[in-house]
Structure formats: structure tokens, C-alpha cells
Design a protein that fits this description.
Length: 315
Amino acid sequence: MLLFLTIRACAALIALIYTLCSKGDIADFAVHYLAPTWIDVITFGVPVLTAMFGPAVGQHYPVLAAFSSFIFELPVILIAYQIHSARQDLIKQSKEGELPVQDEKTHLKDDAEENAGMSESSEDKDSLVVNLVDQPRAKLPWGKILRNVGKRLLCTPPLIAIILGIIWGSIGWKIPEVIGTFLTNLGNCVTPVATFCVGIFITDGKPFTRVWRKTIVYMLIKVIGMPLLAMALIAAFGLRSPVSEVGLVIASLPLAFPAFTFAKEYGRGEDVMATCISVGTIIMLPVVIFWAYCANWVFGSNHSSSSDPSSMMFL
């Protein structure tokens, strides 16, 4: 868990710096952060790691990696998107004349543009309103933002499922066969349904033609940058096998389907999330095999194989 908490912290810093340099807004930061880092450790991670390292590794390590998402990344993403949503509400209110956010500089800018014979597009007007919303007289409702984030965290299905699973496992009760079969079949539906939804969005909106440049950049970061960062941190922490190999393989897994759900819900980045999920899923097999060989070559021969449960805390 420590490994992926560190990876996500580094990725958040990089996304923040890039957003500031590119003069993007808070929603752009959420997209830059979400696209390369929300790893599909459950849908793909469990079967892949189980096939490679056995059930003891495949059924435990992905859950620990998922916890790092819920502990660190999910709150950051939700706060960013909730701030974006609150700003959009303020923009709407300002357009309806409910917020007196005009100031002298705005009037001077309007006069200058009018004298120059310039006509603002709808995008320019939205940009201008965003600047107005940032004025002190249009404060963001931080209380409402934090409440919404808290409610969303408490209502996140994967987090609820993991917590319930931990509680059930701690009690030691055996799941009845009927319930176990139902949960297994329900879990098997997740990937096909999610893939179907993403496929519908791709064929309907043709996002590849709009965001293919961003898709290439995000995919390069995801399939090359993230595993290299994981490899550097594994070496820095001095992690032993199997954590070193497992950590590198997990870092190379494709983008998770919930990334598209978040982007679609808040109306920013759904195009690029859909394309990254699709491309990542298609190229997953060669990418995972490549980094698995790299992990075995770099760490496998230098560290003795050990499945000590105490080492799992580093993932």
C-alpha cells in the first residue's frame, strides 16, 4: 500500500504542476491525475496476478493496492470534481444575474473589446465568467463541497464491498453457497457491462477523432511512465519479491472503468477516459507480459522469493 500511495502522491504533484503550467482549471487537474493512475486492480488485477503468482497473491495484493486508491486518490479526485461542479453552478447563477460579480476591470475589458470590434464566442464568455466567479464576492460553498465528497466516499460501492468483506472475513463465517454463487455471478457481470457502456459511448460520440493526441500522451504515461516510477520506488524502498514483481505488474495494468464513470458524471474528460480504457484494455496483454519480464529480470534474480505477509504493507 505504501508503494502505491507514494506513486499516487508523485502523480498528483506532476498533474498539479502540469495543470498550473498549462493554465488549466481544477477539472483539468482531475483528468490529468485520473487518466494515468486509476489502475484496474480488481477487474483485471485479480485474474492476472492469480494466473501469474497464484491465488494467495492474486486475491490479496490487488485489494491492498485498491485501498491506496480509496484512501488517497479518490478523495482528491472527488474534491477536484466537486469544486468544478460548484464553479459551474456559480457560472450558471452569474449568467442568470443572481451574482453581482462585475467589477471595474471587467467593464474596462468589455469596453476595450467592444471598441476593437471583437465578438465573444460562448467559450470566451464562459472563460470570462469563470474569472468573475473567482472573485471574493463569489465564494465557493466549501461546506457543501466537503459534505458531497463525504457522502460520495461513504456511498462508493467498491469501498463498501471491501469493508463488508473485511468485516465478514474477520468474523470467520462461511458465506452460504447460494449467496456465494450469486455474488460470483454478479461480479462476473461487472466487466462486460462496463465495457459495453464504454463501447456505446465511443461509437456514439466518436471520441477518438477528438482526443487522439491526449489519448497517446496519457497512454504513454500509463504504460511506460507509471511502471518506471514504480520500478524506481521499488528500488528506493528496497522491496523484496514478490512485492517487487507484483507492484510493477499492477502499475502496468490498464485504466479502470470507474474513471469513465467519474468523468461522465461531472462532464469533463469522458472522451479521453473512454479511449484510454479501450486502448489500455486492447494492449493490456503485451504490456503486462513485457513488464512482468522486466520485473523478473530486474528484481527476480536479485531478491529471494518470499511470500511473507508482513511485506504486503509496502504494496
